[in-house]
Amino acid sequence: MDDGDEPDVTAGVSPDTEAPSEAPYEGLSIEGLRRPLTLEQRRRRAAVIAIVIVSALAVLLWPVISYQTFFSAFRPAPVATATGGGFTSRSQFQGGISIVIGSSGASGTPGTMCPVTPQAPSTLGMPEMHADIVGNGDVWALLLSGSKTSVNNAALIVWRATGSGAFQVVASGPGDARLLPVNGPDPHPGGSNWQRPGDEWQTNFIFPTPGCWQLQVTRGTDLHASIWLSVGA
To answer: Is the alpha carbon torsion for 100, 154, 197, 127 positive or negative?
Structure first.
C-alpha cells in the first residue's frame, strides 16, 4: 500500500458479519420498569381521580347542605332578646308576633321579614302594643299618632313600664341605624286615663328611612323590652 492511499476500513471484516442494529435496546426488558402511559390512559386516569374527589366532597358536605335546606323552610321569625350591648334577634317564635313584608332600607331595596308587634284598640280607641319582654316586668305602648308610621313624621308614643329605675328608649333600624327620640322620654307623674300597669312616659320619634324599626326599652337593670314597627315611605 502506498503512503498516499487511505486504509481500507473493511479489510479483514468477514462478509458474514452483521452490522450493529440501529436500535440496540429494542426488546430490552428491565424488571420493575413499566411502559409509559398513553395519552388516552392518562385522560382516563385523570377522569377517575376527579370523580373520586367530587364524590368524597359530596359525601362530606351533604349533611350540612341537607340540614340547612330542610330547616330553612321552618325557621321562625326573629324576636328580641337582651345582650350586653342592647338587643339582637334570635330565631325563636314567641306569642303575639305577626310577619309582614317591609323594605330593608331605602326605596327600591329588596323586602325583608319584619316581626311587627300586633296592635289592638285600647280603651281610649287608639292603638296600643304589648311589648316583648326579656326579664321581669311589663311594658305597653300607646300610639298617639295612629296605627301607621311613616318617615319624617312625628311618631308620638306613650309608654307604661313597671319596675324602678331610669326609663330609656332607643330605636334600631335599617343599615344598623340607631335613633334617639327627638323629645323624651318625658315622665307623666300623674299618669293619664290610659289604664295600663306601671309608670308613664311619652316619646316622639321621627324616622329618617322606611323599613323595619325596633324600639328597645330598658328600665333600670332588670327590665328589657321591645316593639317592632314597619315604617312606610
So the answer is: negative
CA distance 80 to 90: 7
What's the rounded Cα separation, in Å, for the pair 82 and 90? 10
Which residue's entry shows cell 340547612?
Answer: 68
pLDDT digits (tens, 9 = 90+) for 149-183: 999 999 999 999 999 999 999 999 999 999 999 99
Same domain, residue pair 45 and 133: no
Domain range enclosing 69:
32-75
Rounded CA separation 181/26 (Å): 95
Based on the fold, state whether residues 188 and 210 are members of the same structural domain.
yes
**Which residues, including other chains, have CB under 8 Å from residue 177's CB and lie 6 or more apart?**
208, 209
Please check whether residue 216 is in contact with residue 169, taking contact to mean a CB–CB distance below 8 angstroms.
Answer: yes
Residues 125 and 99 occupy one common structural domain: yes
Cell numbers linked to 127: 292603638
Both 59 and 91 in a single domain? Answer: no
Domain identity same for 164 and 116:
yes
- How far, in Å, CA of 108 to CA of 149, rounded? 19
